[in-house]
Design a protein that fits this description.
Radius of gyration: 24 Å
Shape: globular
Number of domains: 1
Low-confidence stretches: 1-7, 76-80, 253-262, 264-284
Structural class: alpha+beta
Strand content: 5-15%
Strand order of the largest sheet: 3-2-1-4-7
Number of helices: 9
Amino acid sequence: MSFSYEVAAFRLSEEELIGHYSAMSEESLITITHGMDRGVVVSVAVSDATSHDFTSEQKQGLARKEIRRKRYERQMANRIKGSGHVRYDFVHKTSRKIVDFDAEVFVFENLNVQNMIRAPKPKQRKENDKYLPNDADAKAGLNKAILESAWDKTKLFTVYKAGRVNKLVIAVPPQGMSQECSKCSHTHPDNRQTQALFVCQNCGFTENADFNASLVTKKKGISMLVAGELSVKQKKRAMRLKKKQQLGQELPEGTRVETELSRTESHAFRTHLSANRETRTTTVLTV
């Protein structure tokens, strides 16, 4: 039974989606799950051997805008970078293609992009005040490539588009993903021969490194679903107090009754409205 529709008649909660897919067998999940690997060479590699990357025209456009940005850096300091339009166009189209797949479960690596793009800390010698090389220039180039690949936005846009059609997006721990063999699960740094080539030192499996990583991502997502290791991340809600009302101070009896009545009427009104419009669902699952 599939919960995916061209236009969803109703929205399922995160708990319902987890329960539905967790109850499936591993064999069934294999046929409806896609793993995603995000990289700086290929923006998104999918476990079905497809990939999504900027077109040559988009890359040329980004390059031209980067040249102009450097030329007019002072003038553009307080302006919106034009290259953002190219990236938003890319992630919108890519996330739409991903969600339109026959797959119903999409697995991403749970990458902390903000930590990944932090500048390296300076290294200072103990014997004097001079600093050691910390590869800051190389790290800056990598950070720029990560940001240009739009990793966060690709996942974010996939999440909300998938939620509209009752499809599930989950994130799995990324540790060792690029070094693990999708065939025999052997994990070793030597498996990653180059940026693009993966050769397992145990079973000899050879594949494009990004595609192998997407298969490992899919495998881990299915394993965690079957094992029941996924849960919904609850959002913290701040308590709001009315003006001149302090925490711990009770309202007068009459005021409290009026407040409850107002809430009841408001809830009934919102319920009436929600019956005639689509409710936005966000399915973000992390471990």
